[in-house]
Amino acid sequence: MHFKWKRSFGGMLASSLVALVATTSLYAIPRAACEPKPDVCCEEPKPGPFAFAFPKDMNLACPRDFYIHIDALAFQAKEDGLTFGIEDASALNVPLSNGKALGFSSQNGDYGYNYGMRFGLGFYLNHDAWNLDFNWTWINITEYKRQMVQPSGSIVPSHLVGTTTPVGFYGLSASGKWNVHYDMLDIRLAKPYHVSRYVILKPHFGLRAGWIDQHYAVDYSGVGTATRTIFHADNDFWGVGSRLGFDSQWMLGKGFWLFGNFAASMLFGKFDISQRLAIPSTTADGYTVDDDHYQNCPNMEMMLGFGWGHFFSRSKYYVSLEAAYEFHEWWDQLNIRRFSSGQGSTGAFTNETVARGNLTLNGFSLKLALDF
Question: Which domain holds residue 184?
């Protein structure tokens, strides 16, 4: 009896193993792309399962493994801390009444689009299809702002110090100009590869060198020429650091795709800060402040968009177009000082560095690329 049970159990176990092996072989991942599909009961079985982890291949005839691109950029630029005054409903030397901030940070909807370019070139390496590329981004930003208050009000300036003149004498208008020269140089090593038939990932890392030179000026009109006041500030930054991220490409067919890219960097750099205030009608008032210091500056960027590509000249070349919306964030970029001036006979004042002076860029890009 015991022997028969053991034989029966062994037969069941053997049958189960045979069935498991058969099922596994039926649904196993093919060992090669050309391996024939197994026989199944339906006429047109669903494709798959798939397993991909091979480099992206442009499939060019006689490839030179070289590519270039040029991007047209149209970005809005915003920065915290560019308020140059406060509107006071009362012109008297009393506490603020219905105060309102004036300047570039008060009405973000007024920011216009500024234009720039991005240039790049790269090479595919023979070592596991890595690619090495270089990119240079240039943007010139210029913004103007003119603010006026009601005749019964006054402007409380943000950058005055060392004067006992009441704020009511600084006029009913103020004009500001903000100019930024933005240059970025990126060198990166990347590896584009398929994670499925229709999704390509491209992790990358490298170096970033950047220059962000800002000039900020405010002209307080004053009551007549005697109290006209002009403020200038230079906020220049340069830095070098590491950058890493990934690009993703989602193939739709017919040469179209969607993409989403992300990158972050940390730069060690130096700020050169210079502030000057002058009252043209006199040399008794005004100041000059300089501040040079080093600090780490983080940066984040991302883009979303779609693209299209096509082979030509017997597949010797591949041209592609990509349109995207981009976001760039630079933390703690503005480091000028604000002053609070006393109105007593001593002309006492306090000052502090602008808090949360983050520089933000966002807008559209159109990329034209050519692969050889």
Answer: 2-33+47-371
For residue 221, tell me if it sits in a domain.
yes
Position 39 in a domain: no
Inter-residue contact 372 to 67 (CB < 8 Å): yes
Helices (H), 161-227: none
Count of domains forming the chain: 1
Residue 230 inside a domain? The answer is yes
pLDDT of residue 158: 80
Dihedral through CA 361, CA 362, CA 366, CA 372, nearest 10? 60
204-252 pLDDT per residue, tens: 999 999 999 999 999 888 666 567 788 899 999 999 999 999 999 999 9
Residue 112 resides in a domain: yes
pTM, 2 dp:
0.80
Beta strands in the chain (DSSP E): 66-79, 83-88, 100-103, 113-124, 131-148, 154-157, 173-190, 193-194, 199-220, 229-253, 256-278, 287-312, 317-330, 337-341, 349-353, 359-371
